[in-house]
């Protein structure tokens, strides 16, 4: 039986970034990772620009309050100043407009008084050189790397890419994830279960976890407890995916033959059990061409926890992220806790406001099938094996989802 850390290290040692593609920049690329450095094609801003509506002035003219200046022209955003600002002069200027030659500062219009005859009084004293001026190249210099390879395409990065004129960029693709569930008792959501049957919650949950975790899910269906059907579905999964996730049939029951089928299909099984709760029967294997195969327990909460701890980190590496996760932080317990467990335990939990910032509260649950409580989770509280007796406020390890 593997320890959690060894299991994760094994998964990551078989995970490599996928071959880069060219991604057109639309919301569909959100979350992909850049596969090349992106450089600025020009300075940004391309010219020194005003950060305020007001007057462009020479700061030396406005050392004391009450300076009266002649307004030589008006410069709206999108226009180029035609005149330079000389001693005793100012230009009416608007946010985003280029600073005219000669001026070195902008005074906000709230700090001025319009006089007759094209004159303006500067009410402020001590106007500083460069105030409300955004210098040419302050954000980026032409030729500089603005987004390094490995940077995730976030909403702000989309804005940066547009500002350097990019419409398509080299990026790592979202890994293709085939999702298969097993079990004779499972029927799809649109069907009314007959006695002994239950609806398939793992399929929709795992495709959604895949999408949230940076993978492109493809739901392949239910493998009935029949060897031939299971084999053909898994074969299809291996053909079309970078990662295959199979839920159920991992345990030791007479119908749990998924591991045997995997071996027949050439999957090298790297581990079959992890010392953790829930989710002991978690399998991981690899094929010769590098496809990763995860077998998760049929119990939905166990499948959820197993996905977050092992599948999601693999998807991140395949998708080009530098950090695999899962991210673990230490947070105070919202309540006291007294629990014994024979294996390290990952309890679905909720973050909540706490005296010192954020705290964590495990969700009340009826056990590994209980998705109704788990759907509220935004974290997993980690309890070490053995007896845990802790007061409210004690720091505990928390995996962020
Ligand atoms: N004698 C032993 N029995 C069990 C052991 C063991 O070590 N010895 N391990 C237990 C643990 S831990 C778990 S977890 C389960 C995992 O078993 P399987 O992976 O083989 O899962 P199944 O038996 O197929 O299903 C378990 C449970 O989950 C329900 N299920 C399955 N698929 C779905 C689905 N798509 N949607 C909703 N619910 C699903 C299924 O009906 C069962 O109730 O084994 C323990 N037993
Ligand atoms: O550990 Mo199983 O995964 O208890 O439900």
TrEMBL record:
Gene3D superfamilies per the record? Answer: MoaB/Mog-like domain (3.40.980.10), MoeA, C-terminal, domain IV (2.40.340.10), Molybdopterin biosynthesis moea protein, domain 2 (3.90.105.10), Molybdopterin biosynthesis moea protein, domain 3 (2.170.190.11)
Is-annotated flag, keyword Membrane?
A: no
Q: Which residues form the MoaB/Mog domain?
A: 178-317
Q: Which GO terms describe its biological process?
A: Mo-molybdopterin cofactor biosynthetic process
**Can the keyword Lyase be found in this entry's annotation?**
no
One cellular component GO annotation, for this chain's record? Answer: cytosol
InterPro entries, from UniProt? MoaB/Mog-like_dom_sf (IPR036425), MoaB/Mog_dom (IPR001453), MoCF_biosynth_CS (IPR008284), MoeA-like (IPR038987), MoeA_C_domain_IV (IPR005111), MoeA_C_domain_IV_sf (IPR036688), MoeA_linker/N (IPR005110), MoeA_linker/N_sf (IPR036135)
**Pathway where it operates:** Cofactor biosynthesis; molybdopterin biosynthesis
Enzyme's top EC category: transferase
Which UniProt keyword terms apply here? Magnesium, Metal-binding, Molybdenum, Molybdenum cofactor biosynthesis, Transferase
Q: Can you provide one Gene Ontology molecular function annotated for this UniProt record?
A: metal ion binding
Catalyzed reaction equations? adenylyl-molybdopterin + molybdate = Mo-molybdopterin + AMP + H(+)
Q: What is its EC number?
A: 2.10.1.1
Concerning Pfam families, the annotation shows: MoCF_biosynth, MoeA_C, MoeA_N
Cofactors needed by this protein, per the record, are: Mg(2+)
The domain of life for this entry's organism is Bacteria
* Described purpose of this protein according to its UniProt entry: Catalyzes the insertion of molybdate into adenylated molybdopterin with the concomitant release of AMP.
- Entry's NCBIfam families? Glp_gephyrin, molyb_syn
Would you identify the family this protein belongs to, as annotated? Belongs to the MoeA family.
Protein name (database record): Molybdopterin molybdenumtransferase
Provide the taxonomic classification. Bacteria, Pseudomonadati, Planctomycetota, Planctomycetia, Gemmatales
